[in-house]
Design brief:
The chain is α/β, with parallel strands linked by helices. It has seven helices and six strands. It is globular and about 40 Å long.
């Protein structure tokens, strides 16, 4: 439900303008899975990592993998509104790996934070910077190739038809 609200209320233009795919994993990313991704017309990918509890949020930072692959232009954590201030404080004080730490990127925090409430309301608390602008010299370009976009569309189609077949 949070994924649907993000697409309909937060991602500018929603699915009519952007390619929006839920639950993207090793068919596209090398090191992690994403709860939701959107790709702009220009070919830039934004990842949305949805967390429902504080423990779920903390668990993401204890994994051996992270969300910083060269395909991700912007990364948002999406959490319940009651966790907002706690998460902001954690994100600002987290020891981000280079080149995402503030000494190199110039940002306090390399990720954004969006909150949601039970009524479906959403709010952006911390805006995610465009990582490619500040790390371009150290990492590959973040713009997806046509082949990568087609692969993501294929994965989205597979998700849709799998869900459709389970309903009927």
């Amino acid at each position: 439900m949070v994924q649907q609200k993000l697409v309909n209320r937060f991602i500018t233009g929603g699915f009519r303008v952007n390619l929006c795919v839920p639950n993207v994993s090793f068919g596209f990313f090398n090191t992690h899975e994403a709860d939701l991704v959107s790709v702009s017309k220009a070919g830039y990918l934004t990842e949305y990592e949805i967390k429902r509890t504080w423990q779920d949020f903390l668990h993401d930072f204890k994994k051996h993998t992270n969300h910083f692959e060269n395909k991700v232009c912007k990364l948002y954590y999406v959490v319940p509104v009651l966790l907002a201030e706690k998460c902001i404080e954690y994100l600002k004080n987290y020891n981000w790996p280079a080149p995402y730490n503030n000494a190199i990127s110039g940002y306090e925090c390399p990720v954004g934070l969006i909150t949601y409430n039970e009524n479906g309301g959403m709010k952006e608390w911390v805006s995610a910077p465009y990582l490619n602008i500040y790390t371009q010299r150290k990492l590959q370009s973040y713009k997806l190739t046509d082949e990568q976009i087609m692969n993501l569309a294929r994965l989205g189609s597979m998700r849709y038809w799998t869900m459709y077949n389970h309903q009927y």
